[in-house]
Amino acid sequence: MAVERKVIFTQPELTDAEYQTIANFVHKASGINLLDGKKELVRARLTKRIAQLEMKNFKTYFQYVLKDASGDELVFLLDALATNLTSFWREPQHFDFMVKTLLPELEVRRKKSGGGGPRLRIWSAACSSGEEPYTIAMVVMEKSSYFANGGDFRILATDLSTKVLNVAKRGQYGPESVKNIPPTALHAFMNKMEAERGGHLYVVKPEVRRIISFRRFNLMDDMPFRGPMDLIFCRNVMIYFDRETIGKLINKFYNLLELGGYLFIGHSESLSGLEHKFQYVAPCIYRKSAR
Ligand SMILES: C[S@@+](CC[C@H](N)C(=O)[O-])C[C@H]1O[C@@H](n2cnc3c(N)ncnc32)[C@H](O)[C@@H]1O
Q1: How confident is the model over 23-67, as pLDDT tens digits?
Q2: Residue 90 CB–ligand 1 contact under 6 Å
Q3: The total number of structural domains that make up the chain
Q4: How far is CA 90 from CA 16, 53, 147, 178, 181, in A?
Q5: Which domain holds residue 225?
Q6: Atom of ligand 1 nearest to the CA of 79
Q7: Is the CB of 129 under 6 A from ligand 1?
């Protein structure tokens, strides 16, 4: 008679010392600050992984992360602890600003250059599952016939988490996710398909996907990208960083931007009190301007 083997998993305890060690390590590796009252979050999100690996406690797991020379478990750890909440057309005033200010400025440049046309380079610097860069691409393509029809336009979309980047690359979203996309853009830039498990899925069309390169990049690392960028979106990620980390990051953004280029940050974020050279334009919009 077969005997059923039950693996009994006892929830490991996370001591204050272990929590501090993990939080300090994550802060150094990613800038994410988990030190202020995030013990429960760390415990809940890592307990699942510890159970999967059939380990007994946080200490053993943390040693495993440190010993893993491939770096894969570090990626897994950071994936588990990052907050990836995002949506299409999130904080829409940024997209209104692009339509009312940025695209007309580029159009003036295009006319002045005798029709050769400007290039447009945008970086979505913590793109999560792709809703932000796809929104940017759709806004530009819907409002600028020049960029919609072959004008030199590229978006670099990066994130720390490989998990969300895989979702972004797939470019498939459920009906709930697409409800903020204006109907004209939904119709123009997404195909509606039958989902395998019933219902519908919306798939980003190839002409939009072609514009975007998704890559893993940790904002704490040196920038390997060739600028200059015309626009950088870094929204709803600096909220997890401390002031010193934000200060360093925005100066890197400044150096990467074209003169006249813009930085957009999230609505609960602020650059006030930090040393920087940006000119304030509107809430959460800053410009690299000639001084
Ligand atoms: C809340 S989401 C914001 C997504 C999007 N920018 C928006 O506003 O909707 C924050 C994203 O930042 C990413 N992130 C956190 N730390 C990061 C780091 N050090 N480097 C790059 N991305 C990071 C997370 O993986 C997550 O996908």
Answers
A1: 999 999 999 989 878 999 999 999 999 999 999 899 999 999 999
A2: yes
A3: 2
A4: 36, 37, 22, 11, 10
A5: 93-287
A6: 25
A7: no
